[in-house]
Amino acid sequence: MSVDFDVAVIGGGPGGYIAAIRAAQLGMKTVCIDDWKTDGRPAPGGTCTNVGCIPSKALLESSSHYELAKEGLGHFGVEIGNVGLDIARMQARRASIVRQNNDGIAFLFRKNKVTFFNGTASFAGCRNGEYRISVTGDESRQFTCTHVIVATGSKPRAWPGVPFDEKYVLSNAGVLAMELVPESLAIIGAGVVGLEMGSVWRRLGSNVTLFESQPALLAGADRQIAQEAQKQLTRQGLTIFTGATVRQVRPVRGGVSIEYDDARGQVTKAVFDKLLVSIGRVPYTDGLGMENVGLKRDERGFIAVDGLCRTNLKNVWAIGDVVRGPMLAHKAEEEGVAVAERIAGKYGHVDYRTIPWVVYTHPEIAWAGRTEEELAEKGITYKSGVFPFMANGRARTMGTTEGFVKILADAKTDEVLGVHMIGPMVSELIAEAVMAITFKASSEDIARICHAHPTLSEAVREAALAVDGRALNM
Questions:
Q1: Element (H or E) spanning 17, and its range?
Q2: Beyond the main fields, what else does the record say (predicted)?
Q3: Is 453 a known active-site residue?
């Protein structure tokens, strides 16, 4: 008796839906199961589409426009009257964009002939190399398959003993859905989510305080970039305490009380209207039925995989946030494509060295490859080239000259080892850096490539020229 599907993908987030599409493109009969619903309708796309990447960028864009209209358009010679804030309309726009993405994924499933089930999938057993999958939801069903790709993602980590109520103690989902601007907002964790959501609500009028336990902001970023980020974000009005140890979080009437030690060890207590807990995420495997087939976790609770995303079970794979590595949507997508291609007998490839990081604050922050600190720790000799956006013509016309581009190249071979940026639209500029690192380009290679003028990308070329001490516009 033949199996129902060649490949079953559990989870419809960036890793899952992309894996399903690629598997179908390669000729395999594929099903994707995802349990997310919004307003009673299936909402494929996972955390990224529903309460992560997409809605946060929608609010970042809206809040940026609001702040520019309120405070910055006069610089461009544009005079306007009183600027109003319509949070309900802003949130409706966010929801509309999310739904467009949900429907877009559903369309892609139909286009590529991927079967989609809305419900919760779990392993029901395995017999003769065939996995039996149960789906519970509006309609319950079972089917068999040969390969399984687990892409169930992650969930926010709560503060110990203080569950999310999404009224005062917020997760990423709750902070995105606020209908009123709180007078004060505390954020525990000044990582990507903390900085982006802090920026949104500060722009809209909230007094935002971030508590970061690490001695410096953005521990994974190049120190020079992180220091510039803290300077710029503090200048905008965010209050950022680094080296802060939060001792106690306690809901009180109409808000949340936080007791913390600052970097000097001074104990302080303060009450805030709202609290966003952004202290990381944990793999989501609830109800997966791992015990029914003997699927193993690693010591941190992630599904254990090797370098090719293979689990301990034959023909069972796992990708994205539910396995080791950075919790990034584009990392999950790369793994999804690679696994689908490996199942098809092809060579699936993921270069973890070149996965870019982006923080969508203003100015934006982006990096790929190694930092100066990593190179120094490994004893790798390198050259550095820095070019400020203040000297870039396009940045001047845009009125956003904060920040710089920094390129790190091997001192002997000139191979580009890392690229770090803070400034306007660096989320787009980082792609050139990723390509350079991937193909082992030298800084001279970038310097010799003609970049259109006037563009922000010229800052990348100038930084490459600066590696050899020959920047032309500085």
A1: helix 14-25
A2: The active site is a redox-active disulfide bond.
A3: yes
